[in-house]
Amino acid sequence: MPGRAGDPADGRYIPRVKRSTRRYLVQGTLYVVFVLVVLFVVLSADWERIQPYFFNPEIAASLFPDIVLTAAKNTVIYTLIAFVGGVLLGLVLALMKLSPVLPYRWLATGFIELFRGLPALLVIFAFAFAVPIALEWRPPGGSTGAGLIGLIIVSSAYIAETIRAGIEAVPKGQTEAARSLGLNPLWTMITVVLPQAFRIITPPLTNELVIIIKDTSLLFIVGMALDQRELTTFARDALSSTASATPLVVAALLYLVITLPLTQLVAKLERHNKRGR
Amino acid sequence: MAHPVTGSTTAPVAVPAIEVRELCKTYGSNDVLKGIDFHVDQGEVVCVIGPSGSGKSTLLRCVNRLEEPTSGVIMVEGIDITDSETDLDAIRTRIGIVFQQFNLFPHLTVLQNLTLAQRRAKKRGKREAAEIARRNLEKVGLAEKADAFPAQLSGGQQQRVAIARALSMDPDMMLFDEPTSALDPELVGDVLGVMKQLASEGMTMMVVTHEMGFAREVGDRVVFMDGGVVVEQGVPEDVLGDPQHERTQSFLSKVL
Predict the structure, then answer these.
(1) What ipTM does the predicted assembly reach?
(2) Which of B93, B99, B169 is opposite residue A173, by nearest beta carbon?
(3) Which of A18, A59, A217, B230 is deepest in the core (most CB within 10 A)?
(4) What are phi and psi of B25, to 5 degrees?
(5) Does A27 share its domain with A89?
(6) What residues form the membrane-spanning segments (chain A) (predicted)?
(7) Which of B88, B91, B120 is most worth mutating to test chain A (most A CB atoms within 10 A of its CB)?
(8) Which structural domain range is residue A143 located in?
(9) What is the pTM of this model?
(10) How far is it, in rounded angstroms, from Cα A123 to Cα A102?
């Protein structure tokens, strides 16, 4: 049984090693284990076989420039559409959820709980194929547009909760000051509450943006025309035509090029916010 | 009226600025205000004192319906503000409120803090609103801070900006809710100085405060509240110097 420090009964069983020496020994052991594991992986893997399959320079080169000019560009465009749409719809849902009118609250709560509870892939699939047939609706942008609407709806459900939390985090005194100056509820919301709420939720909202970037890969399900393809669809098609995993690796790197700066930004904003409080 | 006003220095005016009758306010089973009769005449400075929890801030907040009264009548310049037909936003532009916690808008500059409601609620033009804002900033001694953000100001400066913000709406009266309670002691004087100046210009004022010196020097009338009722009121010399009621005596012996 590990004894507490300073417990005299302990001293008898532990060899007379200085506390600091013991700490160095433990840390040193951890480093040695790490080096051994790395060496094992590097030496045991057959790099001659793995390298051409995962990173074939010729295949990688053949992907450019289309993988950037079409696929990465489309990923960014779909992300922006889904994010802007998600924030706008999420704002409406958040305001409905805070509304004094009970049916609005019910409606918003039902919407949010439904689409947070469903897999995004299923919603996108439904909007791309089931909804257009059932409603005889021709979605703008074809099935890609319909899939995007599904993505907007899913993300809006999450963003709505973020925005609601942000609005509720604005001190009540701000609303009271605005109302006591004669500002009506609408102007109070627009000019006083929302600007502060969005400042508060910038880090979680940026996180939502990163999630949407990754979720645009789910749009592969709708089946895209060549010039509509985003990174994952593009890489998947290249995977089957080249019989190499290289396109996946290149696509993965391009995702990281987009998401890593954003996650760094989130971390920076969170540090900044902490200081500001 | 239940409490005769003894020796008020202001001339009687037909319509009081604020008139409260039998005001009750209940939170659940907690009676905060138990039938308050209270008034402020035009041009009068009324200081409301009392222990914390006595209901004095709630009374002030009821006057522009930041709190919904449970029952009773509240008239502002003869208009019943508890009537659902009353345009509350319009009435509120005539009542300036200064809060304990300043409540400046942190995302706006000082000047924008002062012009926002002028433009949206009073529909003033950009230039006119800025002009009025700068005049009021000058009045509170902060003309050079127009482009600063609230976080860059000291507490005393923030509170003076809050006063200037309320004044920029050209209110008929100013309500102060413990305006110096959140301030470091050395900053209290500047804020009280601005309030004194306002009083000397004839502004109608209702001041909930713990500053007995201010109440004595500036107040036309002092109202002592305890336990949700008005216990005693009158000119400052009488209420603060020679309190008649036992509760007033015990409170004053603790704070003076």
Answers:
(1) 0.90
(2) B99
(3) B230
(4) -140, 125
(5) no
(6) 24-45, 76-96, 117-135, 141-160, 181-201, 248-267
(7) B120
(8) 63-276
(9) 0.84
(10) 27
